[in-house]
């Protein structure tokens, strides 16, 4: 098959350059709109392309691992067009559901702001590799730097690799979740060797040597030198081992401000898919809040925080799987506003009940533009009016984007 010249017209939702041709789209990894590339094409994908005319928006990647590492996809794109692309991902998802609305400019991520990282460790002969998988591969990139991570995590990489080496499974990979807290690093190892218990003394010594706040292995807390605390608007939450937290502190602040501004002067608020209380604890300073979450560990952390006097109004919670048992119309009626922040699958069942309700204000937070658009379509068809949509970028150089949408019922 001979090479052909290809002109890139758009940047796809995964960060690939896309050329629209008479025979269908051609995807070119690493290419940018406006570029001319030469490559062989197999099944709609360019193979080992050469850039003949680069885009003026092309920049030098900031990380030495970028060409191989699958953690980032668009380090080669300048900041301004990058943020426009991120807003465009949300706009396209909305248009696909017939929603034509103005999308605000993307709130930018902070370089080196990722406080939570999920790393992989594996054996390579006598050596331990720790990092991310290569692009479209099961091979691992042993990282020595990562510009998107908090420098505290990057500085700790050698020690974390040493920690992982103690409990690597004989076959397969070890999963490591690292979280920067106000009291130090919280490290959770998953899929560790089943005989890890005999390594507890060595693991404990490494926790002390590295001054970690806490270490957990396969769900068991091995040693906690200090409770790993997250600051939720002035209220301390003890993080659940390996549990969810907003990836960057700057994005958490941005999302929280959008949520608080969105609910306005509401006096009674339901916070659905509330997690550890990222929004509920902040909202509780101005309104009565009922938080609903399905994860027991998250609610346990939330409950523990509420047991201390915090200067909050009435804040209550319940454990409930909202995907299976959403709050129904009658349960929603007492609330002036509802906030929901579901996982990537979205909140279809809950949106259907909200569409039947008389709740005045809804604030939807989402990490998936496609399911957000689906849920907003349900609410719009139920009579709600979309007031604003704001993208928030907390996953720098990746195709992932958060968004906050505010709706009101006339």
Automatic annotation (TrEMBL):
Entry superkingdom: Bacteria
Active site feature: 367 (nucleophile), 367
Positions contributing to S-adenosyl-L-methionine binding: 246, 273, 293, 341
Keywords linked to the UniProt accession: 4Fe-4S, Iron, Iron-sulfur, Metal-binding, Methyltransferase, S-adenosyl-L-methionine, Transferase
Any single GO BP term: methylation
Residues annotated as signal peptide: none
Ranges where the TRAM domain occurs: 1-52
GO MF entry, a single one: methyltransferase activity
Record family assignment: Belongs to the class I-like SAM-binding methyltransferase superfamily. RNA M5U methyltransferase family.
PANTHER family xrefs: 23S RRNA (URACIL(1939)-C(5))-METHYLTRANSFERASE RLMD, RNA M5U METHYLTRANSFERASE
Name of the protein: RNA methyltransferase
Organism encoding this protein: Roseibium algicola
Lineage: Bacteria, Pseudomonadati, Pseudomonadota, Alphaproteobacteria, Hyphomicrobiales
């Amino acid at each position: 098959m001979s090479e052909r010249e290809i002109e890139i017209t758009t940047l796809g939702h995964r960060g690939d350059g896309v050329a629209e041709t008479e025979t269908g789209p051609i995807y070119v990894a690493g290419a940018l709109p406006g570029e001319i590339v030469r490559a062989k094409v197999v099944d709609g994908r360019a193979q080992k392309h050469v850039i003949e005319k680069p885009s003026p928006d092309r920049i030098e990647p900031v990380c030495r691992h970028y060409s191989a590492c699958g953690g980032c996809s668009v380090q080669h794109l300048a900041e301004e067009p990058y943020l426009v692309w991120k807003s465009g991902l949300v706009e396209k998802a909305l248009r696909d559901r017939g929603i034509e609305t103005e999308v605000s400019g993307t709130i930018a991520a902070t370089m080196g702001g990722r406080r939570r990282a999920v790393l992989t460790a594996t054996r390579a002969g006598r050596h331990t590799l720790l990092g991310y998988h290569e692009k479209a591969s099961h091979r691992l990139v042993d990282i020595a730097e990562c510009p998107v991570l908090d420098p505290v995590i990057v500085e700790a990489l050698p020690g974390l690799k040493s920690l992982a080496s103690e409990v690597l499974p004989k076959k397969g990979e070890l999963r490591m979740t690292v979280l920067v807290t106000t009291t130090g690093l919280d490290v959770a190892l998953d899929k560790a060797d089943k005989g890890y218990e005999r390594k507890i003394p060595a693991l404990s010594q490494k926790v002390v040597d590295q001054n970690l706040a806490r270490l957990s292995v396969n769900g068991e807390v091995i040693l906690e030198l200090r409770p790993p605390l997250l600051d939720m608007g002035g209220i301390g939450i003890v993080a659940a081992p390996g549990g969810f937290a907003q990836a960057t502190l700057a994005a958490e602040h941005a999302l929280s401000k959008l949520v608080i501004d969105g609910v306005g002067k509401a006096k009674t608020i339901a916070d659905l898919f509330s997690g550890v209380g990222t929004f509920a604890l902040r909202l509780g300073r101005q309104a009565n809040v009922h938080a609903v979450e399905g994860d027991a560990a998250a609610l346990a952390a939330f409950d523990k925080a509420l047991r201390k006097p915090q200067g909050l109004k009435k804040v209550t919670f319940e454990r409930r799987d909202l995907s299976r048992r959403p709050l129904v119309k009658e349960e929603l009626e007492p609330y002036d506003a509802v906030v929901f922040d579901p996982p990537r699958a979205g909140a279809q069942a809950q949106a259907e009940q909200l569409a039947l309700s008389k709740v005045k204000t809804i604030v939807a937070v989402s990490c998936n533009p496609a399911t957000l658009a689906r849920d907003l379509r349900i609410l719009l068809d139920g009579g709600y009016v979309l007031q604003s949509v704001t993208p928030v970028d907390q996953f720098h150089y990746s195709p992932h984007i958060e968004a906050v949408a505010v709706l009101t019922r006339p």
